[in-house]
Amino acid sequence: MALSAEEMTGLPPRAVGLTVWPGRMLWAMAAVLILSSALAAHTQVKLGLGLSGGIVVAYALVMALRQNLRRRHSSAVSRALGAIIARGPHTQLLSDTHGEILGSNDGPELEGRNVTSLLSSDMADPQGFVRALLRRAEAEGHVSDRLMLRSGRLGLHVSALGEGFFQWQIERLDAETPGAGPGVPRLPMLTVGQRDSILFMNAAARDLLGARKMALTDIFGRQPPRVCEINTIETDVGTRHCLVAEFPLSAGRREIYLLPTNVPAMQGGAIQFDELPVPLLKVGVDGQILMANRAARALVKSPVSARTNLSDLMEGLGRSISDWLAEAAAGHGEHHSEFLLLKRSDREVFVQVSLNRMIEDDEVSLIAVLSDATELKSLEAQFVQSQKMQAIGQLAGGVAHDFNNLLTAITGHCDLLLLRHSQGDPDFGDLVQINENANRAAALVGQLLAFSRKQNLMPEVMDLRDTLADLTHLLNRLVGERITLTLLHDPNLRSIRADKRQLEQVLMNLVVNARDAMQDGGEITIRTESLVLEAPMERDRATVPVGKYVSVKVADEGSGIPADKLAKVFEPFYTTKRTGEGTGLGLSMAYGIVKQTGGYIFVDSVEDRGTTFTLLFPAHELYEAAAPKPKAVEDRAPSKDRSGVVLLVEDEAPVRSFASRALRLNGFTVLEAGTGEEALQILEDRDLHVDLFVSDVVMPGLDGPAWVAQAREQRPKTRVVFMSGYAEDSFPDKKAKIEGSAFLPKPFSLKDLTSIVQAQCAPI
Predict the structure, then answer these.
(1) Nearest residue to 502 (alpha-carbon basis) of 598, 592, 397
(2) What does DSSP assign to residue 288?
């Protein structure tokens, strides 16, 4: 295929013509100047025009010389490139989008033919293969593939040249079939297309099957081949049992290897078994390993000899290996697959082992197919861990909700008793103790809700430098004299949005844990810095998206956490401290608070060197106006100058009893209901005037927001106070967005209840 200089240099013919045009203009200009000098009357003008004409002639001569040299160079480059293509060791073709050959370095005899004709003698469906390559080359720019042929391998490279032209480079290579070599039989191998048509069979496969097969159904019947298992195949001399291995190729094709189960009895079969690219073990019924191929030895990384037993290489995760082998050898059941752990010293490796029964000379043995399942088991462990944490969170949230109801009744009735006792009363001190311990129990329940991320947060925009400055005095008292507390701040630290009180609790818990890990003293470092992630950060089963963050690191020089316990440190009630020294809720509470704030928490630890906890919070760029502080409620006996009708709906009788008594003491008329349905029945009396609904949120039957929504259809101006042991933002939006409603978290005191009811009943 001859190429012109213009085609080789990338210049179209029009561009070449444009390079000649300026030279002609120069000669014409020189002629005009010389002729004008001859006709000029004045001597000075004649000399000037003649000199200009001479300069133009000289410049035109230089341009002509340069153009001639460039033309010679382009011609030489064209001949050299043509020689490279013509004398290259590979076939070069130029085709259109249909595979029609437009030119070739093998001579003009290929022109007019199709690329499929070059592959028709080696493939069953060359037209579909060529069409697929052209589509991929047009989409991706270029594509490469490699075919296994009878005479060896064929390398193909197709490049899209634009405007519907494609360059083909076809390279014939020597055969490199696994197991091939001097005196070594090749493994039977098939190349299969997308529709299970057989594109190629090597000589070993033709010898095994006896003839050329067109589709997998001609070999395996209607059932598809079972990979890594022994299959029954059809040959010209009857059925055979073969172990099947499969490997994917490009363009939807795949290679299928067939290994007859009587391979060890065949000449050269041991070598064939050893070269199969699938980890295989031949195992006796007693567990003794009879053969192990190269891939299996590389996977187990342990010496395998005639005395090696399967239990020496791996250990079972459930029942004993001997029972499993005996069941497979007896032929009980169809599938004998187990996950086992290899006894490797370098790392933890799980394998899935599938046993296939085979009979040779009336003796039963087993073919074990091994596959690395480490990643699968790791994902399974992560899923189980997340499910466990979710279940514990749901349990903690449910228990906390019930506890909040109990604590509301305890603290409420205690407040009612305190109203009737003065400080000089002998029972006053006992009541105060009950109240204080109930508040401590409420704090413990708050930690459970923090873990389950259902606590009430009051987020605000803050600068961590100011928060830590306010907290430093308390932290120094917590760590003691033998431990140094160091704070390092980023001078350009961004703001975050979080609950200041809860965040302080997180930092105190981390500092206390660091103090307890350093019995002999040391240094605790709290470092803050702004962080920008330009790519997602994946770590500890979490993915931190791209964005701006504020990082807080709390590092100590203590004893560290063992690697096998790092994954459990955030679980509730799990602690590495001795009995009585910790509840196991500190880190789980920190985890819940950070997650509910929208942040991330990670831990790094090395035994005997220290531990670092890293907190990541999304940066908050918008500064909010400070919220007005709530007016202080005077600590006095409830006044009876308030009046109004309150419909109190609470399914917990002790809470309802306390709340109704407290409101009546404040001068309110209270109507009580135990369910939402009962409340709606009370409101059927149209003559009944109700100023305020006070309702629990979670109740059997109609919940609080549901019955209130129905009641507000007839009484749209009635205001609402919702009570719940869960966080306000843990409910759906339709429940939270009820106009004229307020939220009262449990447990609440008498003063909390009366204050919010008086505020809601106050005239607008």
Answers:
(1) 592
(2) B
Helices (H), 189-320: 203-209, 217-220, 269-275, 294-300, 310-313
* Cα three-residue angle 471-523-594, rounded to 5 degrees: 50
Sign of the dihedral through C-alpha 326, 327, 330, 335: negative
Residue with tokens 């105190």: 508
Which token pair is 376? Answer: 């699968």
C-alpha–C-alpha distance, residues 469 and 325, integer Å: 67
Give mean pLDDT, residues 707-735.
Answer: 76
Cβ neighbors of 308 (< 8 A, separation 6 or more) are: 288, 289, 302
**Quick one: which of 375, 370, 310 has its CA closest to 337?**
370
Which residue's entry shows tokens 């670092």?
Answer: 612
pTM: 0.40
Alpha helices of 723-763 — where are they, by DSSP H? 733-736, 750-761
Q: Which residues contact 12 (CB under 8 A, 6 or more apart)?
A: 6
Q: Architecture of 645-761 per CATH?
A: 3-Layer(aba) Sandwich (3.40)
For residue 188, what is the DSSP state?
Answer: P
The values of phi and psi at residue 352, to 5°, are -100, 120
More confident residue, 8 or 554: 554
Query: Closest Cα partner for 199 from 260, 118, 121?
Result: 121
Beta strands in 556-661 (DSSP E): 600-606, 610-618, 645-649
Q: pLDDT tens-digit profile of 350-385?
A: 888 888 777 776 778 888 888 888 877 777 766 666
pLDDT (mean) for 719-742: 69
Between the two ends of the chain, the Cα-to-Cα distance in Å is 94
Which residue, among 2, 23, 1, 3, has the nearest Cα to 70 in the 3D structure? 23
Give domain 91-173's CATH architecture. 2-Layer Sandwich (3.30)
Please tell me the CATH code under which domain 460-618 is placed. 3.30.565.10
Helix (H) / strand (E) containing 231: strand 230-235
Residue with tokens 């360059």: 167
Grouping H, G, I as helix, E, B as strand and the rest as coil, residue 694 is strand
pLDDT band at residue 266 under the 50/70/90 scheme:
very low
Would you list the DSSP string of 357-410? EEEETTEEEEEEEEEE-HHHHHHHHHHHHHHHHHHHHHHHHHHHHHHHHHHHHH
- Evaluate whether 243 touches 230 at the Cβ level (below 8 Å): yes
Predicted confidence band of residue 598 (pLDDT cuts 50, 70, 90)? confident
Domain 279-372 class, CATH top level: alpha beta
* Architecture label for domain 377-451: Orthogonal Bundle (1.10)
DSSP 626: P
DSSP letter at 729 equals G
Q: Is 92 exposed, middle or buried (0-12, 13-18, 19+ CB in 10 A)?
A: middle
Closest to 228 in 3D by CA, of 216, 241, 244, 240: 244
Look at the domain 189-269 and name its fold: Beta-Lactamase (3.30.450)
Between β-strands 547-555 and 537-539, what pairing exists: parallel, antiparallel or unpaired? unpaired
Structure tokens that stand for 65 in this block = 């010389």
Number of other CB atoms surrounding residue 551 within 10 Å: 18
pLDDT at site 555: 93
Burial of 683 (0-12, 13-18, 19+ CB in 10 A): buried
Indicate the length of the chain as a whole number. 764
Where residue 268 falls (left for φ over 0; alpha for ψ -120 to 50; beta otherwise) is left
How far is the C-alpha of 676 from the C-alpha of 699, rounded, in Å? Answer: 8
